[in-house]
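Subject: complex prediction, re-run

Hi both,

The earlier run crashed halfway through, so I resubmitted it with identical inputs.
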Amino acid sequence: MSQIIVHVDKIGLTYQTAEGETEAIKDISMDIYEKDFVGIVGPSGCGKSTLLSIIAGLIKPTRGTVIVDGQAVDGPSNKMGYMLQEDYLFEWRNIWQNVLLGLEIQNKVNESTKSHVEQLLKNYGLYEFRYHYPHQLSGGMRQRAALIRTLALNPEILLLDEPFSALDYQTRLAVSEEVAAIIKQEGKTAVLVTHDISEAISMSDRIYVLSQRPAIVKNVYDIRLSCQDKTPLNARKCPEFREYFNSIWKELDIHVG
Amino acid sequence: MSVNRDIFVSPERQSYLKQMKKRRQNIILGRVLILIGIIVGWEAAADLGIIDPFITSQPSKILTTIINLHNNGQLYNHIWATVAETVVGFIVGTAFGTLIAIGLWWSDYACKILDPYLVVLNSLPKPALGPILIVWLGNGKPAIIAMALLISLIVTIIMVLNGFLEVDKNKIKLLQTFGASKAQILTKVILPASVPTVISALKINVGLSWVGVIMGEFLVSKEGLGYLIIYGSQVFELDLVMSSVIILAIVAAIMYQAVSYLETRFMQYKE
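This time it finished cleanly. Structure:
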């Protein structure tokens, strides 16, 4: 079996504001294996995005540690690439300048990194559009450009924070299919935070279900589907898909009204 | 697509295009007619004694006055004096205002501490400071430029700072995931994202700077269009006053157009 690459060890987070204390995360531990695709689902406002920010080193937890590749996380690192809820491509930069942004920040723009990025653009069908501005691209292409911007720094782990939530349903299916294929092809480990149960099942190898705030891990599912070719779209057709959906749905205990 | 349109134009499209052309022509015609109407009406009313040209002046006298000013070479000295003061006023006002806004963005503490001072300075009518400026800076150009600067500075600080604070937090978060420093956040996101805000501040400052300069020239100067206006009214030569106001209107409009052109140049990526 492959190695543990991310070890989340008894994380807790308490916010301090003028109004008082809020316990966002009570106690979360998880092990993420190399090249796995891990989904994190939970009711809205349960702190799943916060958890991702902690893993990324953007927020310091009140208790506990995150260990990536044997090292404790202390601030953002190049081992991890973060994808936000929208593409956040800068409208004043063309696609080429946008995908180089991370390298530029870290003063790593050179011939070899540039040719790596060029190759990524070529592989994922954006090379011809490199001098276009973001508003000239479709939602799916923009999302791919955002992914390439993250991949440009060659992270081992991709942290996806509801990366498709700004897209309409059809684009969303198509883009999640593409992104899953790219992540698999590049051999990356991925952690996907989402409130969409179907999306989590269709993309993940393993799903962590979080409770309401203050969050704990309520349950862990290893997703084993009988399909031949487990792309997100095919996964939705598997007989087991519905069973997983129903049990996670119950687990989340969503009440309407 | 566009090639096809050139080869074959449907009759409906032709009549639509014709209609649009007619509409454009009518709009221009309307504008010209209003101008001619004003000039002819004004001239005729003065000639027929309906209005007194001594206090209203009249177009033919305005034209003669402008030609005289042109012939003795004074016209361009006055225009130049006023334009130079205005340009210095709005450029320095926008630049300083933006710099101070950067400082306030950088330090949240400074921003909070200085907030009430900005509010008070913003609500204070700046011409009230005119006499103080004259005492401090003397009876000349520095006082006029300071006036133009003061009028635009505070507005610029508030506008640009608000622009900075409205930049999407997630764009900043994106840079933080790359490990960006505060200086990098400023130069890579905050400033480029705020170019439209700074340019609209510049546009507003052109207008405010004119107000400041004309105010200042009323108070102290020995040259400039504001000086001509106040001098003309003091010696009761309304021809000179009206001529100066008209020249001022034309020069101010040209300057505004120039800044608008600058805006479209900078905003090209949005097209």
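Chain B has two domains: 2-51, 63-270.

- K.
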